[in-house]
Design a protein that fits this description.
63% of the residues lie in helices and 0% in strands. The chain is mainly alpha-helical and 224 residues long. It has one domain. The longest helix has 56 residues. It is elongated and about 95 Å long.
Length: 224
């Protein structure tokens, strides 16, 4: 039991250290994956399973986290502007719909309580607002109240950060419980060792005493 708990404790520490050491690399990998998925696979060739899955997942993430694009803020070329600037979806949609093509997908639009789109023409850029997204490229000074402008990586990071204290408290509690288990295991193992030592001494003493008593009884004269 003690060996298993110690192994789990060491594994927990090693995994935590590795996660901390590669945190920046993990961030860069997630950003790159989001950007590549949107630019190359979103909304096109939906007969391919990969493209369909990426499109469905991206729409779900953008609706749930109230975000648009890969990462960055309103003036980033990798948030809402990524669709217009680098996505195959926008190029294909422009060919089909011309100047009526939306600049962002519908999942980037804010919704009412009944899940209907708040202001679809304004959100998609069909109604141009001076120096505001999505019809105008960054940098911008205007705003669009119908459009999600934050990149999804930043939105998900904010979501996780808001809950990191709970996760940290759970992790620390787990470490404390494991340390308590190790300490209790050591104490119990020591107790067993001591009990075994004195138990063997008592058994040996009892056996020798019994042997001596038996020998004395056999040599004693019988009194009548």
């Amino acid at each position: 039991y003690l060996i298993v708990v110690i192994c789990l404790f060491v594994t927990f520490l090693v995994v935590g250290a590795i996660g901390f050491a590669f945190y920046t690399e993990l961030q860069d990998a997630v950003k790159s994956t989001l950007e590549t998925s949107i630019a190359k696979y979103y909304g096109i060739n939906l007969d391919a399973d990969r493209n369909t899955e990426i499109t469905t997942a991206t729409d779900a993430v953008q609706r749930y986290f109230s975000c648009c694009g890969a990462y960055g803020g309103v003036n980033s070329t990798r948030s809402w502007y990524l669709y217009q600037n680098a996505s195959a979806w926008y190029q294909a949609t422009t060919v089909l719909e011309g100047n009526k093509a939306p600049f962002v997908p519908l999942s980037c639009c804010k919704r009412r309580a009944d899940s209907s789109v708040q202001d679809q023409p304004r959100c998609l850029g069909n109604v141009n607002v001076t120096n505001a997204p999505p019809a105008n490229p960054p940098p911008l000074t205007g705003s669009n109240a119908a459009l999600f402008i934050e990149g999804c990586f930043d939105a998900m990071q904010s979501f996780v950060s808001a809950r990191i204290l709970v996760a940290g408290a759970v992790g620390i509690s787990y470490v404390v419980l494991m340390l308590a288990g190790i300490i209790i295991g050591f104490i119990f193992a020591r107790f067993l060792a001591v009990a075994d030592y004195y138990g063997s001494k008592y058994t040996a003493f009892d056996s020798s005493a019994g042997a001596a008593g038996g020998a004395g009884s056999s040599s004693s004269p019988i009194v009548t």
